[in-house]
Amino acid sequence: MDSLIAASARALATGDAIGALQRIALRDDPPALALRGIAMAQLGEHPRARELLRRAARGFGAHEELARARCVVAEAEVALAMRDLGGSPRALMAASSTLEARADHANALQARLIAARRLLLLGRLGDAEAALSQLDARGMPPLPAAIAELAAAELALRSLRIEAARAALARAHEAARRSTVPALMAEVAQARATLDRPAARRLCGAQAQALRLDEVAALFDADTLVVDACRHGVRRGGTWLPLARRPVLFALARTLAEAWPGSADRDALIAAAFRLRQPDETHRVRLRVEIGRLRKLLGPVAEIEATAQGFVLKPRPEAGEVVLLAPPIDGDQASLVALLSDGAAWSTSSLALALGASQRTVQRALAELEATGRVRSIGRARAQRWLAPPLAGFTTILLLPASLPFD
After folding, report:
1. Helix (H) or strand (E) segment spanning residue 96
2. Whole-model pTM?
3. 47 & 95 share domain
4. I want to staple 69 with a disulfide (CB 3.0 to 4.6 A). Which of 95, 159, 220, 311 is the partner?
């Protein structure tokens, strides 16, 4: 490695992308191309960074397996920053194995961190936890240690393990401080701020009380019947009844919770569940069928009784009260807005992967949001990406896709 390449690599390690480019900007040999790609990624020029890294990988050729593997890892991190999640992780895992076999443990660790962060973005929290459990942040250099702790903190937050999240964020803050990388310190500070922002609303009649994540966790731990409109289910203590894939039943449960302790009118239930304004007798028959299904599902935690006007939700005596937990933002596309609010540019295919929905469904939702000015697109055709303004006033942790153990 010549002196300019070494100096450029040291500059990149401290986050000085401009200083790195000043040394190798006019060079086209593979090591310089790779470093230029990393520098462009640090400056936010992700498409150019990906092009340079691919050119570097081709330039190294099959006889320089270690250098090629490093380029694959760097390109995977650029893809993560671009929210391009559609590719197969096999190339990244193969590169990680190559790096381990060649004793390049630092870059092998980086590859495993990228794989775990990708799983977090896709909402595969169980797989992400398994991947992170194989890493020991205590023996890492400051930069990867901070990234690993940030990933562990996000996993804990999305699983509502607040104390574990606080501890991980404290470790991330210390590691970021030791790394002296300003962008990383800012990212840690932003993550810590989510603990103090409203994450949900507790609705009671016409009044709404904003709740932080720790207050939501305390509500879940209490012996209270919670109709959770953030994750679409009903919870009491350790019992979780998911209704995300049964929208009619959840609409009925939410309407009953809104009317509690009174009864919900039959016409209001029909309007909420079937989206009808002028119901007839067939709809009332269907309502009785769906109420029967909901009554059977909620049997372990609550009862549904018929009244003269409609139906009333009655929690088990030990549950005490019914609480309706609503998202901090309204609308059917709340999870989509939550993903876009991270400030990154997402492709439609990546959004569909993260939400577990079809690409056509996501396209229709994006068109509706764009019409109201809540999102905007850049580029055209396959290069089109979607952005939304960051939602700094509250955290959207509860709205992000997640395959939790209770789902």
Report:
1. helix 90-101
2. 0.83
3. yes
4. 95
